[in-house]
Each structure stands twice: as C-alpha cells, then as structure tokens.
Amino acid sequence: MSVAVETTVTRAPLPVPIHFSHAEQSFSLKKRRVPFSSSSTSNSSYSSPAQLSRSLPPLPPSKGCIPLSRMFPQHPSPWTPLSCSLSKSPRPNSVYDPSKQESYFSQCFTNLGLLGRGSFGEVYKVQSNEDGRQYAVKRSAHRFRGSSERNRSLREARNHEQLCPHPHILKFVAAWEECGRLFIQTELCSTSLLLHAENQPPGPDESSAWAYLCDLLSALQHLHSHGFVHLDLKPANVLITDSGRLKLGDFGLLFEVNQKSIEPVEGKGKGKEDAQEGDPRYMAPELLRGEYGPAADVFSLGVSILELACNIEVPNGGEGWQQLRQGCLPSEFTRGLSTELQTVLGMMLAPEPSERPTVSELLALPSVRKHRWKRRIYLMFTETMLTLTSLCQLVVYFGCRLLSSLHLSFPRHQTKPVPCTPPRDSWDKDLTLPLSAMHADSGSPEEDAVFLLGPTDPELSPTFSHRVKSRLSVESTSTPLPASPQPNHRSPVHTPTHSKLGDWSSYNLAQTPSSIHSNGSYHTLTPSASPIHAGRHTDNMSSTQSQRNSSTKSSQRRGCNWVRTEEDLPRSSFEPKNLLSLFEETTIEGQP
Ligand SMILES: Nc1ncnc2c1ncn2[C@@H]1O[C@H](COP(=O)(O)OP(=O)(O)OP(=O)(O)O)[C@@H](O)[C@H]1O
How many domains does the chain have? Predict the structure, then answer.
C-alpha cells in the first residue's frame, strides 16, 4: 500500500518553473544555428535567440535627451582592480600608465579577436603586453544599470577568484572594472565542450562520455570538498583545452555550502527564488524546492553526460523534462550505451537528492576508477607530447634564426636591403583608443572599436579562421558563434564509437552530410517516440566554404584600421606555422 502511495507521489508532475511557460514544451529537432552574420558584430545590433530569452531588456530609446557623456566633460573612467592579482602594489611588469588616455585593456592587451558571446558578455582572445602570453578576456555586454546588476556581475569574478587552482577548473587570472563594465581575464582554452561536441560526427560516443565524466567529477570533487556547489553545470560552461582536458568555468551561481544551512557565496539577494536561475535543461528537481546542495551538481552532470554520450537534445520543458526528473531515462537512446554507463547515469539522475551518490562515491565506483586511470594516462601522454612538440619547434626556430644570421654575416648578402618593420606606434594607433572614446555611450562605434572587427568580416579571431560552424544555439545561453577548430589531436575523446547504435541507425543515416541540402539546411528527421531528440549536426559544406574564404577574409581584415590581425602583431612568442616562411626567407636572403 505504502509502495503504491510512494509511486503516486514520485510520479506526480513537478511544478514547472515560471519561466518554463515559454519553454519548449514539445520535442523538436535541434535548432539550426543562425549563421553569424557580419552585421552582427555590433554589440547593439546583435542578439541571438538565447540572448533574447535570457538577457535584460534593451535600454529605452533616447527621446531627444543629450547623452550624459556629451553633457559632462569626458573624464577617464576610473580603472578599478577587483582581483587580488591586480590590487598588489606595485605590480611587477605592469605596462599600465594611468596618466595615459588609453584604457587599461588597450594598454595591457592586444585584442586578437572575438571567441564567443554569452548572455553575460563577450569573450576575446588577447595577448598580454606584459608577459606575451595569450588569455581569454570576458567583457560584460553593457554597462551596469544600477548597483544590483553590478553586484550580480561582480559575483562571478569574486566567486571564481576564491576557488583554489585545480587542473580541471578554468584558471582565473584577474578581474577589473572600467567604464562601467566588468572584465574577467582567464586562461585561454580551445573552445567550449558544447561547441566541441557539436562538431563531432553524429551518433553515440561512449568513450568520450567516460572521459568527460572523469574530468568533471574531478572538478566537482574539488569544488565540493572546498564547500562550494556550482549549480550551473552544463556543456556550455565547460571549456576544453588543446590537449582535450576539460575545465569547468562560469561560476556566476556558485554557492557556499555551510554546515547548517546553505548560503550563497555573496550571501545577499539570493534565496529560494533564485533556484530557477540555472539552465532548466540541466536543473536538478530539488532546486525548485529551494534545496541547494552538491547533489544538484551530480544531477546536472548526469544530464550533461547523457546528452553527450547519446548525442541528443535534452528537453527544457514538457513531458521529457518531467520524465527525466522522475528517473526515466530515454531507453531508445541509452540502450546503445554499455550497462556500466547506464547504471552510473541512472544513479546520478535519481529523483531524490538523498538517493544520488556523492561525487566521492561515484569516483570510487570500479567502472569510474578504470576509466579515470585511462584518462589520466591519456592526458599525461597528450600533454607531454604537446610540450615536447613545442620544445622541438622552439629548437628548430632558434636554429633557423642562427643559420639566418650566419648567412647574413657574409658581405655579399648584405647588399640586399632588409625589409623595414613598421614602427610599433603605427600598429598601436590602429587598435588603441583614448579612454574617453571607450567611455562614450553604449553602442557608439568608438567604444567598441577595440573589441570589434571589420563589418565585412564575420571571422573575428584568428581562431575563427578555422571555425567552421556558423550556428547559433537556440537553447544555449552562450556562444551563438562559429564553432572552434577541431583540435589536431584525435583521442579517445574525439573518436566516437559507432558500434552501438541501437535505434539510432536511422537517425545517423538521416544526419550524414548527404542529408544536408546544398543551401545548408537539414532534412527533417523522423520524429522519435522519445521526447528527447537526436542532436548534433555537422555542417560540412559551410565549413569547407568558410575555410576557403578564410584567406580572403584575412587579407580583408588587414584593411580595417581598427583591428590587428595576428599576422600584423609583433610576435613575442614563437608560432610554429611560420617555420616554412622562415626557411623561405632564409633562402631568399641567401640568394645574391
Ligand atoms: N577561457 C576561454 N577560452 C576560450 N573560449 C572561451 C573562454 N571563455 C569563453 N569562451 C568562449 O566564449 C563563449 C561565451 O563564454 P561564456 O559562456 O563564458 O559567456 P557567458 O556570457 O558567461 O555565457 P552564459 O552566461 O550564457 O553561460 C563560450 O561558449 C566559449 O566558446
């Protein structure tokens, strides 16, 4: 009798979050991303569907009022360091001179291009003028409109900084505020896990799923052991490095778990009502009851791994969403997975948080231990190989330089005029802007000139020249931009298993490149009995086209006077791709 009652209770539909009323209630194919158009490079004009649904409403149009910046003299906006790394005084190697008109960003970094956009802001690939290394800098999309918005924005930076470094946590470098915007500098990664997964061939990929699970369990163990809960774990918030190592990022919703009660890190203005802040697709059911705890991260990780292993869309509402939160996995997709993975997923997706294993318990499972061991060896090997390759390239580079200088020391070769390098000032003029320009009203072209590239060029960073995907994720809260390049390495992570297809075979056939129309659109797939849909497509045609156009676009980019391309930059670090040209230069210089 009691069992029957329990079953009824468990099966009762969960209260749907308020904002789910606009969510996708029925199941549909993964939306094709809207190609990143050149006109979208402007801050004000661009908004992806995801941004539309999650970003704040636009500022009301001005009705004849003179902008504040024109009414008052434009004093440089104070640069406020927010992280300890910047507050240290005096900072070694600092190139920032507050007396100069240029902003802190302009003085300290060379902008190499846009990496992606999210609901919070834009992420740029930059080169530090202090140490010559490359980083990612996230800039809030617009100026803070009030202190509550500012506090919310600063929370992510503060949360991130207080985390102890870990190999699977995105490394925080610095944060500052300038011109009413927040800047967060982090280590540079290759791309997000979401975009990486979308670039993989369709079909289940269990070996990669185990690798992702091992990395993210390590990250969660680190967070949970330090008393933190992430509360927004999803593939879009995970980054992947060149070696394939996953790094957990985006700590905007980080909570500190106290012994008695669970308090948010900032402690102010967050409570039960904020439980809906995370992405509904990955949200644990107990968050709707205001129960914040480590088990919520385990659930979100379970949904993420289910999505990645089966290569499906997880629902953001409706029947499929309810079923997943009642412990029902979509068997038509999961039956292609091994029993081991199915068991682990079943445990992680238990409806009651108390029934879910902790991260430590999951790490202790024999199946997880086996894959974790393999994963460690793989990462160690790949990262060692990458380091060795870089070292070899460095040796070859200096060898070439030596040979080249020996050649030049012959008197007969000195007759050839050495090409002049333009003075550094002329480069800087292109990119750096007076702070007053940056301080202008939001949306002014001057303000964003440091951050935006040519209106004719949709490929925004050197990384983008390889990015072949131009799809906007309708559901994702971030990165509706072209996907990143396929990493050169092909690892177990990147080599999907196609042997266990189950009912997937029909989907796979439908999603081969031949099913893509010449205009880039996709055939509609046969609706599944499952509410959860097969997901990721690869737009090979647009990819080829994009690559073909990249060289032309690169030369076009050089014509823009307000951005520097990587080719134009002073090269403080060695770039392996230029070895061939170095050899060619040496040969040409050696000719009489
Ligand atoms: N450190 C990084 N290295 C490389 N690419 C990055 C890095 N950080 C972010 N990106 C890229 O920028 C995109 C947007 O970043 P991010 O998701 O952090 O923005 P966001 O505004 O916080 O998004 P949201 O709040 O919607 O999740 C990512 O999807 C990723 O492609």
Answer: 2
Q: Which of 66-70, 419-423, 499-503 has the lowest mean pLDDT?
A: 499-503
The alpha carbon dihedral of 399, 401, 405, 407 has a sign of positive
pLDDT at 70 over 80: no
Task: Note whether 98 and 89 are within 8 A (CB).
Answer: no
Quote the tokens at residue 575.
């770039």
Distance CA 268, CA 271 (A): 8
Residues 241 and 196 placed together within one structural domain of the fold: yes
Ligand 1 contacts (CB < 6 A) are 115-121, 123, 136, 138, 170, 186, 188-189, 191-192, 195, 236-237, 239, 250, 477-479
List strand residue ranges (DSSP E) for 82-200, in order: 109-117, 121-128, 134-140, 172-178, 181-187, 191-192
- Check which CATH number belongs to the domain holding 287 and give it: 1.10.510.10
Task: Find all residues with CB under 8 Å of 335, minimum gap 6, and list them.
Answer: 342, 502, 503
Residue nearest to atom 29 of ligand 1 (CA): 479
Predicted local confidence at residue 54, as pLDDT: 41
Distance 327 CA to ligand 1 centre (A): 31
- Domain membership of residue 514 (yes or no) is no
Residues 128, 147, single domain; the answer is yes
**Which of the two residues, 407 and 449, has the higher pLDDT score?**
407
- Residues 230 and 284: their CA atoms lie apart, in Å, by 12
- 117 alpha carbon – ligand 1 mean position (Å): 6
Per the confidence metrics, is the pTM higher than 0.80? no
Whether the pLDDT of residue 339 is over 80: the answer is yes
Burial of 196 (0-12, 13-18, 19+ CB in 10 A): buried
* Number of DSSP helices (H) and strands (E) in the chain, helices first: 20, 14
3-state secondary structure of 577: helix
Of 145, 164, 187, the residue that ends a domain is 187
Q: Do 352 and 315 fall into the same domain?
A: yes
The alpha carbon of 4 and the centre of ligand 1 are apart by a number of angstroms equal to 46
Q: Is 374 annotated as a binding residue?
A: no
**Confidence band (pLDDT; 50, 70, 90) for 441?**
very low
The pLDDT, as a whole number, for residue 421 is 44
Q: Do 174 and 202 have their domain in common?
A: no
Q: Give the structural domain span for 157.
A: 77-187
Query: What's the CA gap between 447 and 179, in Å, rounded?
Result: 10
Query: The tokens of 479 are what?
Result: 């990165």
Site to probe by mutation for ligand 1, drawn from 199, 479, 481, 484 as the one with most ligand atoms within 8 Å of Cβ, is 479
Residue with tokens 């396929």: 486
Please check whether residues 210 and 351 belong to one and the same domain. yes
